[in-house]
Amino acid sequence: MIPLFRVLAVLPLSLLHVMGATLGWIAFLASPTYRRRFLANARQAGYGFGQVRGGVAAAGRLIAEVPRLWFGAAPAVQWSGEHLIEEALARGRGIVFLTPHLGCFEATAQGYAERYGPITVLYRPARKAWLRPLVDQARARRNLMTAPTTLSGVKQMLKALQAGQAVGLLPDQVPPQGLGVWAPFFGKPAYTMTLSARLARQTGAQVLLAWGERLAWGAGYRIHLRSWDGELPAGAEAAAAQVNDRMEALIRECPTQYLWGYARYKTPREAA
Question: Is 154 a domain residue?
Answer without folding.
Answer: yes
